[in-house]
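Handout, page 2. Input:
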Amino acid sequence: MPRLTAVFLILSACTTVAAQQNPSRPQLAAQVRSEFLHAWNGYQKHAWGHDDLKPLSKSYHDWYAEPLLMTPVDALDTMILMGLKDEAKSTREYIVKNLSFDKDISVQNFEITIRLLGGLLSSYQLTGDRRLLNLAEDLGNRLLPVFDSPTGMPYRYVNLRTGKVRGNVSNPAETGTLLIEFGTLSKLTHKPVFYEKAKRALVETYKRRSPIGLVGTWINVETGQWTDTDSHISGAIDSYYEYLLKCAILFDDQDCKRMWADSLSSINQYLRDETKGRMKPELWYGHADMNTGRRTATTYGALDAFFPAVLALSGDLGRASLLQESSYRMWMKHGIEPEEINYQTMEVVSPTYHLRPEIVESTYYLYHYAISTVNASNVRKVGLPPPTVRKLDPGHYQQMGRMMFADFVKHCRTDEGYAALKSVVTKEKADSMQSFLFAETFKYFYLLFAPPKTLDFDSVIFNTEAHPIRRDW
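Output:
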Protein backbone atom coordinates (compact mmCIF):
# COMPACT_ATOMS: atom_id res chain seq x y z
CA MET A 1 0.00 0.00 0.00
CA PRO A 2 2.73 2.54 0.82
CA ARG A 3 4.40 1.76 -2.53
CA LEU A 4 1.10 2.18 -4.41
CA THR A 5 0.44 5.44 -2.57
CA ALA A 6 3.85 6.71 -3.54
CA VAL A 7 3.29 5.80 -7.18
CA PHE A 8 -0.10 7.53 -7.12
CA LEU A 9 1.40 10.69 -5.66
CA ILE A 10 4.16 10.70 -8.27
CA LEU A 11 1.66 10.25 -11.10
CA SER A 12 -0.54 12.99 -9.65
CA ALA A 13 2.42 15.33 -9.41
CA CYS A 14 3.43 14.57 -13.00
CA THR A 15 -0.13 15.22 -14.17
CA THR A 16 -0.18 18.56 -12.33
CA VAL A 17 3.15 19.62 -13.83
CA ALA A 18 1.99 18.60 -17.32
CA ALA A 19 -1.22 20.61 -16.89
CA GLN A 20 0.79 23.62 -15.79
CA GLN A 21 3.14 23.27 -18.76
CA ASN A 22 0.33 22.74 -21.27
CA PRO A 23 -2.73 24.53 -19.88
CA SER A 24 -6.10 24.19 -21.55
CA ARG A 25 -7.74 27.01 -23.48
CA PRO A 26 -10.06 27.94 -20.57
CA GLN A 27 -7.08 27.97 -18.22
CA LEU A 28 -5.13 30.19 -20.59
CA ALA A 29 -8.06 32.58 -20.99
CA ALA A 30 -8.29 32.78 -17.19
CA GLN A 31 -4.55 33.46 -16.99
CA VAL A 32 -4.77 36.28 -19.52
CA ARG A 33 -7.70 37.75 -17.61
CA SER A 34 -5.71 37.51 -14.37
CA GLU A 35 -2.67 39.21 -15.91
CA PHE A 36 -4.88 41.96 -17.33
CA LEU A 37 -6.13 42.60 -13.79
CA HIS A 38 -2.58 42.55 -12.45
CA ALA A 39 -1.56 45.30 -14.86
CA TRP A 40 -4.83 47.18 -14.33
CA ASN A 41 -4.45 47.13 -10.55
CA GLY A 42 -0.94 48.50 -10.94
CA TYR A 43 -2.30 51.33 -13.07
CA GLN A 44 -5.07 52.06 -10.56
CA LYS A 45 -2.64 52.07 -7.66
CA HIS A 46 0.05 54.29 -9.14
CA ALA A 47 -1.36 56.16 -12.15
CA TRP A 48 -5.11 56.51 -11.71
CA GLY A 49 -6.49 59.51 -13.57
CA HIS A 50 -3.44 59.71 -15.82
CA ASP A 51 -2.67 58.34 -19.27
CA ASP A 52 -0.15 55.55 -18.63
CA LEU A 53 1.58 53.69 -15.81
CA LYS A 54 5.37 53.78 -15.53
CA PRO A 55 5.77 50.29 -14.08
CA LEU A 56 9.36 50.43 -12.85
CA SER A 57 9.28 53.79 -11.08
CA LYS A 58 5.64 53.16 -10.05
CA SER A 59 4.63 56.59 -11.28
CA TYR A 60 2.65 57.92 -14.23
CA HIS A 61 3.10 59.39 -17.67
CA ASP A 62 0.76 61.85 -19.39
CA TRP A 63 0.99 62.46 -23.11
CA TYR A 64 0.24 66.18 -22.79
CA ALA A 65 0.04 68.90 -20.17
CA GLU A 66 -3.33 67.52 -19.09
CA PRO A 67 -4.26 63.81 -19.01
CA LEU A 68 -6.81 62.34 -21.42
CA LEU A 69 -7.40 59.01 -19.62
CA MET A 70 -5.76 56.99 -22.39
CA THR A 71 -5.56 53.77 -20.37
CA PRO A 72 -9.14 53.75 -19.02
CA VAL A 73 -10.66 54.47 -22.44
CA ASP A 74 -8.42 51.96 -24.21
CA ALA A 75 -9.09 49.29 -21.58
CA LEU A 76 -12.87 49.58 -21.26
CA ASP A 77 -14.06 47.40 -24.13
CA THR A 78 -11.52 44.72 -23.19
CA MET A 79 -12.95 44.66 -19.67
CA ILE A 80 -16.42 44.22 -21.11
CA LEU A 81 -15.34 41.33 -23.34
CA MET A 82 -13.55 39.67 -20.41
CA GLY A 83 -16.69 39.86 -18.30
CA LEU A 84 -15.08 42.14 -15.72
CA LYS A 85 -18.40 43.77 -14.93
CA ASP A 86 -17.48 45.66 -11.76
CA GLU A 87 -14.26 47.05 -13.21
CA ALA A 88 -16.01 47.99 -16.47
CA LYS A 89 -18.87 49.74 -14.69
CA SER A 90 -16.65 51.79 -12.38
CA THR A 91 -14.27 52.67 -15.23
CA ARG A 92 -17.13 53.75 -17.49
CA GLU A 93 -18.56 55.99 -14.76
CA TYR A 94 -15.15 57.52 -14.11
CA ILE A 95 -14.68 58.26 -17.81
CA VAL A 96 -18.04 59.96 -18.35
CA LYS A 97 -17.67 62.05 -15.18
CA ASN A 98 -14.03 63.06 -15.58
CA LEU A 99 -13.03 63.02 -19.24
CA SER A 100 -13.26 66.40 -20.94
CA PHE A 101 -11.81 67.42 -24.28
CA ASP A 102 -12.18 71.13 -23.59
CA LYS A 103 -8.44 71.49 -23.06
CA ASP A 104 -5.93 73.97 -24.40
CA ILE A 105 -3.55 71.28 -25.63
CA SER A 106 -2.27 70.31 -29.07
CA VAL A 107 -2.78 66.57 -29.65
CA GLN A 108 -1.72 64.09 -32.32
CA ASN A 109 -4.82 63.48 -34.40
CA PHE A 110 -3.97 59.89 -35.41
CA GLU A 111 -3.27 58.57 -31.90
CA ILE A 112 -6.25 60.36 -30.37
CA THR A 113 -8.50 59.02 -33.11
CA ILE A 114 -7.53 55.34 -32.89
CA ARG A 115 -7.30 55.22 -29.08
CA LEU A 116 -9.90 57.62 -27.72
CA LEU A 117 -12.42 58.08 -30.53
CA GLY A 118 -12.25 54.40 -31.41
CA GLY A 119 -12.44 53.33 -27.77
CA LEU A 120 -15.43 55.52 -26.99
CA LEU A 121 -17.35 54.35 -30.06
CA SER A 122 -16.68 50.67 -29.40
CA SER A 123 -17.63 50.92 -25.73
CA TYR A 124 -20.79 52.79 -26.70
CA GLN A 125 -21.79 49.99 -29.04
CA LEU A 126 -21.10 47.40 -26.32
CA THR A 127 -22.98 49.23 -23.56
CA GLY A 128 -25.51 51.52 -25.22
CA ASP A 129 -24.38 54.30 -22.86
CA ARG A 130 -25.23 57.46 -24.80
CA ARG A 131 -22.80 59.49 -22.71
CA LEU A 132 -19.91 57.70 -24.42
CA LEU A 133 -21.27 58.62 -27.84
CA ASN A 134 -21.67 62.24 -26.72
CA LEU A 135 -18.02 62.30 -25.69
CA ALA A 136 -17.05 60.77 -29.04
CA GLU A 137 -19.02 63.36 -30.99
CA ASP A 138 -17.49 66.22 -29.00
CA LEU A 139 -14.03 64.83 -29.70
CA GLY A 140 -14.79 64.31 -33.39
CA ASN A 141 -15.89 67.92 -33.75
CA ARG A 142 -12.71 69.14 -32.08
CA LEU A 143 -10.55 67.06 -34.42
CA LEU A 144 -12.23 68.19 -37.66
CA PRO A 145 -9.95 71.24 -38.24
CA VAL A 146 -7.05 68.88 -39.08
CA PHE A 147 -8.67 68.23 -42.47
CA ASP A 148 -8.57 71.90 -43.52
CA SER A 149 -5.42 71.58 -45.63
CA PRO A 150 -5.17 72.42 -49.36
CA THR A 151 -5.15 68.71 -50.21
CA GLY A 152 -7.70 67.53 -47.65
CA MET A 153 -5.08 65.30 -46.03
CA PRO A 154 -4.95 66.06 -42.31
CA TYR A 155 -2.35 67.98 -40.37
CA ARG A 156 -0.74 65.90 -37.63
CA TYR A 157 -1.70 68.03 -34.62
CA VAL A 158 -4.68 70.10 -33.52
CA ASN A 159 -5.45 72.15 -30.43
CA LEU A 160 -8.60 70.69 -28.86
CA ARG A 161 -9.85 74.07 -27.69
CA THR A 162 -8.74 76.53 -30.37
CA GLY A 163 -8.64 74.26 -33.44
CA LYS A 164 -5.18 75.54 -34.37
CA VAL A 165 -3.31 72.99 -36.47
CA ARG A 166 0.36 72.22 -37.09
CA GLY A 167 2.51 69.50 -38.60
CA ASN A 168 2.23 69.71 -42.39
CA VAL A 169 4.54 66.76 -43.05
CA SER A 170 2.71 63.54 -42.28
CA ASN A 171 2.60 59.91 -43.42
CA PRO A 172 0.03 57.57 -44.99
CA ALA A 173 -0.77 55.90 -41.67
CA GLU A 174 -1.72 59.23 -40.13
CA THR A 175 -3.57 60.54 -43.18
CA GLY A 176 -5.32 57.28 -44.03
CA THR A 177 -6.15 55.60 -40.72
CA LEU A 178 -9.20 57.61 -39.77
CA LEU A 179 -12.21 56.38 -41.72
CA ILE A 180 -13.26 53.52 -39.43
CA GLU A 181 -13.59 55.90 -36.50
CA PHE A 182 -14.90 59.00 -38.28
CA GLY A 183 -17.12 56.88 -40.52
CA THR A 184 -18.60 55.08 -37.53
CA LEU A 185 -19.19 58.39 -35.78
CA SER A 186 -20.95 59.61 -38.92
CA LYS A 187 -23.19 56.53 -39.05
CA LEU A 188 -24.10 56.76 -35.35
CA THR A 189 -24.75 60.53 -35.31
CA HIS A 190 -26.19 60.75 -38.84
CA LYS A 191 -23.75 63.54 -39.65
CA PRO A 192 -22.07 62.96 -43.04
CA VAL A 193 -19.24 65.46 -42.48
CA PHE A 194 -17.17 62.99 -40.44
CA TYR A 195 -17.28 60.30 -43.12
CA GLU A 196 -16.69 62.75 -45.94
CA LYS A 197 -13.60 64.37 -44.41
CA ALA A 198 -11.90 61.09 -43.50
CA LYS A 199 -12.83 59.47 -46.80
CA ARG A 200 -11.36 62.35 -48.77
CA ALA A 201 -8.11 62.12 -46.77
CA LEU A 202 -7.85 58.43 -47.59
CA VAL A 203 -8.57 58.97 -51.30
CA GLU A 204 -6.14 61.89 -51.59
CA THR A 205 -3.40 59.74 -50.07
CA TYR A 206 -4.11 56.96 -52.56
CA LYS A 207 -4.20 59.41 -55.49
CA ARG A 208 -0.60 60.34 -54.75
CA ARG A 209 0.69 56.80 -55.15
CA SER A 210 3.52 56.33 -57.64
CA PRO A 211 3.09 55.08 -61.23
CA ILE A 212 3.83 51.54 -59.94
CA GLY A 213 1.16 51.87 -57.23
CA LEU A 214 3.23 52.38 -54.07
CA VAL A 215 3.12 55.13 -51.44
CA GLY A 216 6.08 56.62 -49.58
CA THR A 217 6.75 57.22 -45.91
CA TRP A 218 6.40 61.02 -45.54
CA ILE A 219 4.27 63.49 -47.47
CA ASN A 220 3.55 67.22 -47.24
CA VAL A 221 -0.21 67.61 -46.75
CA GLU A 222 -0.18 71.16 -48.10
CA THR A 223 1.69 70.52 -51.34
CA GLY A 224 0.97 66.81 -51.77
CA GLN A 225 4.66 66.18 -52.44
CA TRP A 226 6.49 63.18 -51.01
CA THR A 227 9.44 64.02 -48.77
CA ASP A 228 10.48 60.37 -48.25
CA THR A 229 9.92 57.81 -51.02
CA ASP A 230 10.72 54.68 -48.99
CA SER A 231 7.83 52.22 -49.38
CA HIS A 232 6.98 49.30 -47.05
CA ILE A 233 4.21 47.89 -44.82
CA SER A 234 5.81 48.98 -41.56
CA GLY A 235 5.17 51.91 -39.22
CA ALA A 236 4.04 55.17 -40.87
CA ILE A 237 2.33 53.23 -43.69
CA ASP A 238 0.98 49.99 -42.14
CA SER A 239 -2.55 50.90 -41.05
CA TYR A 240 -3.20 52.88 -44.26
CA TYR A 241 -3.35 49.56 -46.08
CA GLU A 242 -5.25 47.96 -43.21
CA TYR A 243 -8.00 50.59 -43.45
CA LEU A 244 -8.39 50.29 -47.22
CA LEU A 245 -9.48 46.69 -46.73
CA LYS A 246 -11.40 47.11 -43.51
CA CYS A 247 -13.39 50.12 -44.74
CA ALA A 248 -14.30 48.22 -47.90
CA ILE A 249 -15.81 45.55 -45.64
CA LEU A 250 -17.22 47.70 -42.83
CA PHE A 251 -18.93 50.30 -45.02
CA ASP A 252 -19.20 48.31 -48.26
CA ASP A 253 -17.31 51.24 -49.79
CA GLN A 254 -16.60 50.60 -53.47
CA ASP A 255 -13.78 53.14 -53.67
CA CYS A 256 -11.99 51.44 -50.79
CA LYS A 257 -12.58 48.09 -52.48
CA ARG A 258 -10.87 49.30 -55.64
CA MET A 259 -8.03 51.05 -53.82
CA TRP A 260 -7.31 47.96 -51.72
CA ALA A 261 -7.21 45.63 -54.73
CA ASP A 262 -4.86 47.97 -56.61
CA SER A 263 -2.62 48.46 -53.59
CA LEU A 264 -2.37 44.77 -52.75
CA SER A 265 -1.25 44.00 -56.28
CA SER A 266 1.61 46.51 -56.00
CA ILE A 267 2.54 45.36 -52.50
CA ASN A 268 2.87 41.77 -53.66
CA GLN A 269 4.77 42.73 -56.78
CA TYR A 270 7.35 45.05 -55.26
CA LEU A 271 7.49 44.57 -51.48
CA ARG A 272 7.03 40.80 -51.20
CA ASP A 273 10.33 38.98 -50.76
CA GLU A 274 10.74 35.21 -50.81
CA THR A 275 14.02 34.03 -49.32
CA LYS A 276 15.70 30.67 -48.91
CA GLY A 277 15.01 29.46 -45.38
CA ARG A 278 16.73 26.71 -43.47
CA MET A 279 14.10 24.12 -44.35
CA LYS A 280 11.89 25.76 -47.00
CA PRO A 281 11.35 29.15 -48.71
CA GLU A 282 10.25 31.96 -46.39
CA LEU A 283 7.93 34.87 -47.10
CA TRP A 284 8.75 38.39 -45.96
CA TYR A 285 7.81 41.92 -46.98
CA GLY A 286 10.67 44.40 -47.25
CA HIS A 287 11.31 47.98 -48.37
CA ALA A 288 11.50 49.41 -51.88
CA ASP A 289 11.67 52.77 -53.59
CA MET A 290 8.10 53.84 -54.34
CA ASN A 291 8.94 55.05 -57.85
CA THR A 292 11.24 52.33 -59.16
CA GLY A 293 10.41 49.30 -57.02
CA ARG A 294 14.10 48.83 -56.28
CA ARG A 295 14.72 46.92 -53.04
CA THR A 296 16.12 49.35 -50.47
CA ALA A 297 16.11 47.30 -47.25
CA THR A 298 15.45 43.76 -46.06
CA THR A 299 14.00 44.71 -42.70
CA TYR A 300 10.80 43.48 -41.04
CA GLY A 301 9.57 44.01 -37.52
CA ALA A 302 6.95 43.92 -34.83
CA LEU A 303 4.72 46.45 -36.61
CA ASP A 304 4.89 44.55 -39.91
CA ALA A 305 3.48 41.49 -38.14
CA PHE A 306 -0.04 42.90 -38.56
CA PHE A 307 -0.02 41.94 -42.24
CA PRO A 308 -0.81 38.21 -41.89
CA ALA A 309 -4.10 39.24 -40.24
CA VAL A 310 -4.93 41.60 -43.10
CA LEU A 311 -4.04 39.00 -45.72
CA ALA A 312 -6.21 36.44 -43.93
CA LEU A 313 -9.11 38.91 -43.74
CA SER A 314 -8.79 39.47 -47.48
CA GLY A 315 -8.99 35.72 -48.14
CA ASP A 316 -5.31 35.09 -48.94
CA LEU A 317 -4.72 32.39 -46.34
CA GLY A 318 -1.74 31.01 -48.22
CA ARG A 319 0.43 34.10 -47.92
CA ALA A 320 -1.04 34.91 -44.51
CA SER A 321 0.06 31.61 -43.00
CA LEU A 322 3.52 31.75 -44.60
CA LEU A 323 4.14 35.30 -43.38
CA GLN A 324 2.92 34.37 -39.90
CA GLU A 325 5.58 31.65 -39.75
CA SER A 326 8.20 34.28 -40.58
CA SER A 327 6.87 36.57 -37.85
CA TYR A 328 6.97 33.71 -35.36
CA ARG A 329 10.54 32.88 -36.34
CA MET A 330 11.41 36.50 -35.56
CA TRP A 331 9.79 36.07 -32.12
CA MET A 332 11.56 32.78 -31.37
CA LYS A 333 15.01 34.13 -32.26
CA HIS A 334 15.33 35.75 -28.79
CA GLY A 335 12.22 34.45 -27.06
CA ILE A 336 10.33 37.67 -27.81
CA GLU A 337 10.16 39.85 -30.91
CA PRO A 338 12.42 42.85 -31.51
CA GLU A 339 11.17 46.06 -33.05
CA GLU A 340 13.03 45.23 -36.28
CA ILE A 341 15.30 42.61 -37.82
CA ASN A 342 17.20 42.10 -41.05
CA TYR A 343 15.34 39.05 -42.34
CA GLN A 344 18.19 37.98 -44.61
CA THR A 345 20.63 37.63 -41.72
CA MET A 346 18.10 37.38 -38.86
CA GLU A 347 20.18 39.93 -37.00
CA VAL A 348 18.43 42.46 -34.77
CA VAL A 349 18.35 45.98 -36.20
CA SER A 350 16.28 47.59 -33.41
CA PRO A 351 16.26 45.58 -30.14
CA THR A 352 13.36 47.20 -28.27
CA TYR A 353 10.01 45.55 -27.50
CA HIS A 354 7.14 47.90 -26.73
CA LEU A 355 4.56 45.26 -25.65
CA ARG A 356 3.24 45.32 -29.20
CA PRO A 357 0.18 43.24 -30.17
CA GLU A 358 0.46 42.74 -33.92
CA ILE A 359 1.85 39.20 -33.97
CA VAL A 360 -0.80 38.12 -31.44
CA GLU A 361 -3.47 39.77 -33.58
CA SER A 362 -2.38 37.75 -36.61
CA THR A 363 -2.29 34.55 -34.56
CA TYR A 364 -5.88 35.18 -33.48
CA TYR A 365 -7.04 35.84 -37.04
CA LEU A 366 -5.39 32.71 -38.40
CA TYR A 367 -6.78 30.61 -35.58
CA HIS A 368 -10.24 31.94 -36.39
CA TYR A 369 -9.90 31.02 -40.05
CA ALA A 370 -8.44 27.64 -39.14
CA ILE A 371 -11.62 26.70 -37.25
CA SER A 372 -14.10 28.23 -39.69
CA THR A 373 -14.65 28.74 -43.38
CA VAL A 374 -13.43 32.00 -44.85
CA ASN A 375 -16.11 34.65 -44.76
CA ALA A 376 -17.03 34.71 -48.44
CA SER A 377 -18.71 38.10 -48.08
CA ASN A 378 -15.34 39.66 -47.21
CA VAL A 379 -13.83 38.32 -50.41
CA ARG A 380 -16.73 39.46 -52.56
CA LYS A 381 -16.70 42.95 -51.05
CA VAL A 382 -13.03 43.58 -51.76
CA GLY A 383 -13.15 42.09 -55.24
CA LEU A 384 -10.54 39.39 -54.71
CA PRO A 385 -10.43 35.94 -56.29
CA PRO A 386 -11.68 33.02 -54.17
CA PRO A 387 -9.59 32.29 -51.08
CA THR A 388 -6.38 30.38 -51.64
CA VAL A 389 -6.78 26.77 -50.63
CA ARG A 390 -4.60 26.07 -47.63
CA LYS A 391 -5.51 23.82 -44.76
CA LEU A 392 -4.71 25.50 -41.46
CA ASP A 393 -4.18 23.66 -38.19
CA PRO A 394 -5.95 25.44 -35.31
CA GLY A 395 -3.80 23.59 -32.79
CA HIS A 396 -0.70 25.12 -34.37
CA TYR A 397 -1.92 28.65 -33.69
CA GLN A 398 -3.06 27.76 -30.18
CA GLN A 399 0.42 26.43 -29.42
CA MET A 400 1.98 29.50 -31.00
CA GLY A 401 -0.16 31.68 -28.71
CA ARG A 402 0.74 29.60 -25.64
CA MET A 403 4.45 30.04 -26.31
CA MET A 404 4.18 33.77 -26.92
CA PHE A 405 2.04 34.38 -23.84
CA ALA A 406 4.48 32.43 -21.65
CA ASP A 407 7.39 34.45 -23.05
CA PHE A 408 5.44 37.69 -22.67
CA VAL A 409 4.74 37.04 -18.97
CA LYS A 410 8.23 35.73 -18.29
CA HIS A 411 10.09 38.71 -19.70
CA CYS A 412 7.73 41.67 -19.27
CA ARG A 413 5.80 41.15 -16.00
CA THR A 414 6.73 43.38 -13.05
CA ASP A 415 5.40 43.46 -9.52
CA GLU A 416 2.98 46.25 -10.46
CA GLY A 417 2.28 45.79 -14.18
CA TYR A 418 4.08 45.04 -17.42
CA ALA A 419 7.17 46.76 -18.79
CA ALA A 420 8.50 47.25 -22.30
CA LEU A 421 12.00 45.97 -22.99
CA LYS A 422 15.00 48.07 -23.89
CA SER A 423 16.51 45.00 -25.52
CA VAL A 424 15.09 41.60 -26.38
CA VAL A 425 18.65 40.29 -26.27
CA THR A 426 19.44 41.33 -22.70
CA LYS A 427 15.78 41.47 -21.56
CA GLU A 428 16.46 44.77 -19.75
CA LYS A 429 13.16 46.44 -18.96
CA ALA A 430 12.04 49.98 -19.80
CA ASP A 431 9.81 52.16 -17.64
CA SER A 432 6.89 52.16 -20.07
CA MET A 433 3.45 50.53 -20.27
CA GLN A 434 1.38 52.11 -23.02
CA SER A 435 -2.40 51.91 -23.07
CA PHE A 436 -2.48 49.62 -26.12
CA LEU A 437 -1.36 46.83 -23.79
CA PHE A 438 -4.95 46.79 -22.50
CA ALA A 439 -6.70 47.63 -25.77
CA GLU A 440 -4.80 45.21 -28.00
CA THR A 441 -2.21 42.85 -26.54
CA PHE A 442 -4.30 41.46 -23.69
CA LYS A 443 -7.45 41.51 -25.82
CA TYR A 444 -5.99 39.46 -28.65
CA PHE A 445 -4.39 36.97 -26.25
CA TYR A 446 -7.74 36.60 -24.48
CA LEU A 447 -9.80 36.19 -27.66
CA LEU A 448 -7.33 33.59 -28.93
CA PHE A 449 -8.07 31.36 -25.94
CA ALA A 450 -11.62 32.37 -24.95
CA PRO A 451 -14.73 30.61 -26.33
CA PRO A 452 -15.66 31.88 -29.83
CA LYS A 453 -19.00 33.09 -28.46
CA THR A 454 -17.09 35.73 -26.47
CA LEU A 455 -17.10 37.86 -29.63
CA ASP A 456 -18.54 37.03 -33.02
CA PHE A 457 -15.50 37.70 -35.20
CA ASP A 458 -17.50 38.02 -38.40
CA SER A 459 -19.87 40.61 -36.93
CA VAL A 460 -17.18 43.20 -36.16
CA ILE A 461 -14.22 44.99 -37.66
CA PHE A 462 -11.37 45.86 -35.32
CA ASN A 463 -9.87 49.29 -35.69
CA THR A 464 -6.09 49.44 -35.61
CA GLU A 465 -6.21 49.80 -31.80
CA ALA A 466 -8.32 46.58 -31.61
CA HIS A 467 -11.53 48.36 -30.69
CA PRO A 468 -14.32 46.22 -32.25
CA ILE A 469 -16.88 48.10 -34.35
CA ARG A 470 -20.14 46.38 -35.33
CA ARG A 471 -20.56 45.69 -39.04
CA ASP A 472 -24.29 46.35 -39.14
CA TRP A 473 -25.73 49.84 -39.59
